[in-house]
Amino acid sequence: MKLRLKLPLLLIPVVALPLIIVGIVSYVQLREVAERRSSAQIETLLTQVDLNAHRLIDNARSNVQLFSEYPLVEQYFLADSEDERYSVLYRPLQHQLHDVQKVFPYYYELRILLPSGFEDLRLVNRDIPNLTENEIGSPLFTAVSNSESDLSVQFMTNPDTQQLACYVTKRIRLSNEATDDPTAAPRLRGYFSATLDLGSLFKQFSENRLGENGGIYVVSENGEIAYLPEHLRWLESVDMNLPDDFIMTRTSRMQEIDLGGEIFHMRTQHLYGDLWMYAILPETDLLSASRSFSKVIGQITALAILSSLSLILYVMRVQVVGPINRLRKGLLKVAEGDELVQIPVDRKDEFGELGAEFNRMGFELKKSNDQIRDMAYNDNLTELPNRFLFHKNLGRSMDIALQEDKQLGLLFLDLDNFKQINDTLGHHIGDKLLKEVALRLQNNLRGKDIANRLDQGVVEHNLARLGGDEFTVLLHGITSPVGIGKIAQRLIDTIEQPFFLEGKEHYISVSVGIAVFPGDGENSEDLLKHADLAMYQAKKKGKGCYEFYSKEISNLAIERSQLERNLRAALENNHFELFYQPIIDCQTEKIASLEALIRWMDPELGEVSPEYFIPVAEDTGLIHAIGSWVLAEACCQLKLWQDAGIENLRVAINVSGKQLEKSDFAEQVERNLARNGVSASSLYLELTESAVIQGTGEVLETLKKLQSIGVRIALDDFGTGYSSLSYLRHLPIDILKIDRSFIQGLGQQNNNVILSAIITMAQALSLEVVAEGVESQGQFAFLKKERCDLLQGYLFHRPQPSLRITEQLLSKSLQF
């Protein structure tokens, strides 16, 4: 056989087979990577939705248990006659449940069902028809009646709204001490049911889209759709009959299914009861990048074969073997994992075209890998580099700045009042606003301020979004701080221009903190921290401005250090003093107790507010010594009052959460009580919400031990944290102090209702209620009408030194 025929036969496999193998291997690898990433993303999303759903249901179960134990609810169920229920109890119970709905508006329907299934009481906070009052035979009543648990949860369609709803129902079993046999078991009195608004859960399904046409929807045990987000309505027009083995097994692995002629990847996860979550992702979205790459591979392979056949008919072996060997080596590098392989192209014939196509294939391969990296390094909303990539860029930029002996500027941007826009106008407006902000920053910086240094390892994206409404900008080759300030001001000016979103104007501003490397930090953590501090200093100055990290900011740290030294000196030189503010009984207007309040009179600083020095004491650990002094001083003063004939007086002491973390705190309290001969019942400790709610198991055990010896525990500033009244049942507390912000807000309708509900429910939990910050007769009158237990504020008494309080107590000018 002639060489011109033999060479094509020999070279075609050499050229074509490596390309085909590389294409197949690359396509398979890209497909596997895409499937693994998508499966992990879907699993994370389903798990998060499942956690949120169970958290929502658990809270509802706790609250329904609490509501059903209200004395008025139990009286209503125990009423033997309809006259008593309807004429005496019906309206008060309506008012109480109405207050509950004001505090918890997502319980949009509260009902009382009799054992017969008759709906005896129904309260809704929205316009919902009531198709029937007789629930006997209904799916809900059947499920509740047959439930093994007295507290049951059902997900089913609400016949009044034709929407999926969550019903939390408590079976009420009570004994009437007046009429029932005391030895008999409590008998069934009826059911207390709350219908839960699933809007927050549905919102998660609507917001979390998977690709263009994918997402999450909910089906029942038999495969019927229970909830379908708006963007998945197209599923209603396709055949949804899934294979029987899929419905029976519902495996958590990704499976391929055919929906309307399109392949989808589906994964399931149990939601609650007989409800399942189905997550679907179109295969077109999953494999778009790899499919594009496979087409390029096919084109290159075909072109390689055709070029080889035409060329080797006219050239000698020496001219053919060289280019093919170079191409084969390049293919081997691709197979070994090199992302961007380029071969020299010095010819204009078919081999040159083949080399160019190979190089294009290399770029396509890198492009495909870059798309995968974008998922890890780029912010999904703005397509800017995320926090992870920013830290990599910052480290590289600092290294180059050191090598070139130049400065590097870091701008830390934080939008002002963005949370208000996000909360009032909705997250969709907030997301659009963030996109527009990112676009403006990019357009403003492009080509003027940011040095693109790909040749030296600095990624060209020097603008990044750290998360939320925080952005950063890196400026290379800085010669003057004035230039940085001009750039920062230009960014501020461009953000202050109106944003047009959905046909309306919106205005925001931005605060910018500036740190310059290497002067403001020798490592990336310090530089970012200092830029952040400068940004907060800009916000303190009124927002909408920029601030350099400077000596002035450092002076704040120096002042704090000086305060710490003065604080230590105050402990050594006894510069502290306790003032006492009376707390009065709301009904008798007599003194019930005194709150001990620490005062610091510093020779250099004058009077220092506790709000200023207590946080420093907690950070430095001095709070333990200060707290011990307060405890000893208060117990000693309490003993002096008792020796002077002032009996039945209680003193409240504020305790830091840091003190509770010490294992011997309870013993320290006992020692002070015993040393002064003071009874434990005359002392109670006030703690913040965070100290109790975030306390470890050891902290809670300490509080229980203090309660066991007679010391009462008060939860201070209630309402400023995040504890719920139902959660209070499980905490070792005796007294609830309502924060002064609620008292100052009296006169606002919603505030009055919330305050009334807090007092009512706290007293229902057998907690003594104290209102602090009472400063007007109107506030006093309202709290007295609501039968608040104790009051504290300037309307009655201001804090005074112990000597002055003693004189007034002995002269009877203060009644107790």
Account of the protein in words:
The protein has 816 residues and is an alpha+beta fold. The chain has 5 domains: 3-32 and 287-376, no CATH class; 69-197, Beta-Lactamase, CATH 3.30.450; 209-286, PAS domain (Beta-Lactamase, 2-Layer Sandwich); 378-549, Reverse transcriptase/Diguanylate cyclase domain (Alpha-Beta Plaits, 2-Layer Sandwich); 561-810, TIM Barrel, CATH 3.20.20. 50% of the residues lie in helices and 21% in strands. The chain contains 27 helices and 27 strands. The strands form 5 sheets. Strands 18-19-21-22-23-24-25-26 form an 8-stranded mixed barrel, surrounded by 4 helices. Helix 1 (3-68) packs antiparallel against helix 8. It is flat. The model is unreliable at 448-460 (pLDDT under 50).
Short précis:
The chain has 816 residues and is α+β, with helices and mostly antiparallel strands.
Features:
Beta-Lactamase, single chain, five-stranded antiparallel sheet, 5 domains, 816 residues, alpha+beta, flat, eight-stranded mixed beta barrel
Give the topology.
Elements (H helix, E strand, L loop, with lengths): L2 H66 L2 H8 L3 H22 L3 E7 L5 E6 L14 H8 L4 E8 L4 E12 L12 E10 L2 H9 L7 E5 L5 E3 L16 H6 L5 E5 L2 E11 L2 E8 H4 L1 H24 L5 H20 L13 H28 L9 H18 L2 E10 L1 H8 L1 H19 L17 E5 L2 E9 L2 H16 L2 E3 L2 E3 L2 E9 L6 H17 L5 E3 L2 H23 L2 E10 L5 E12 L3 E3 L1 H11 L2 H21 L6 E5 L2 H4 L4 H12 L6 E6 H5 L3 H12 L3 E7 L6 H4 L6 E4 L1 H5 L4 H16 L3 E5 L4 H9 L4 E3 L7 E2 H9 L6
Helix pairs in contact: 1-8, 1-9, 2-3, 3-25, 8-10, 9-10, 12-13, 13-14, 16-17, 18-20, 20-22
